[in-house]
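Table S2 (text version). Query chain:
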Amino acid sequence: IAALGWHVQLHWLASQIEAHAALLQRLPCTLVFDHMARLADSADGAGVHQSAFGVVRGLVQQGRAWVKLSGPYLNSRAGLAAGYADCDALAQAWVSEAPQRLVWGSDWPHVTEAAHPPQTPMLLALLSRWIPDAALRARVLVDNAAELYGFD
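Corresponding structure-token output:
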């Protein structure tokens, strides 16, 4: 797929990223880590202390990977009622580490959350909480997406 200019989007858990770190380094294509790289987080920012965070950060710093700010409910222990606040530290860490390599996704139709699906406006509000700077948010929503997906 590298020859086609395509990328691989991974919906892996932190344990899978850690277990396959050497393979990820060898892949000749661009990688996109979905759902903030599935680093289960907590209010104390534990997600950023997992070795998988370092693996993904290294690939991002090499210009070989992107992180998608999506599906906070897959990383949250606090849940929808708490506004996924326990994901803030992880999301903000990605914003701090790699604003030029982030894209956003609604993760609609939220098939894993059929009983209590989050509403897209609430997810956009999370993005504003994670990235309060409007210019940086525009970069994530527009410029980065255009670069990753090859939009004009």
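Notes on Table S2: DSSP finds six helices and four strands in the chain. Residues 134-149 form the longest helix (16 residues).
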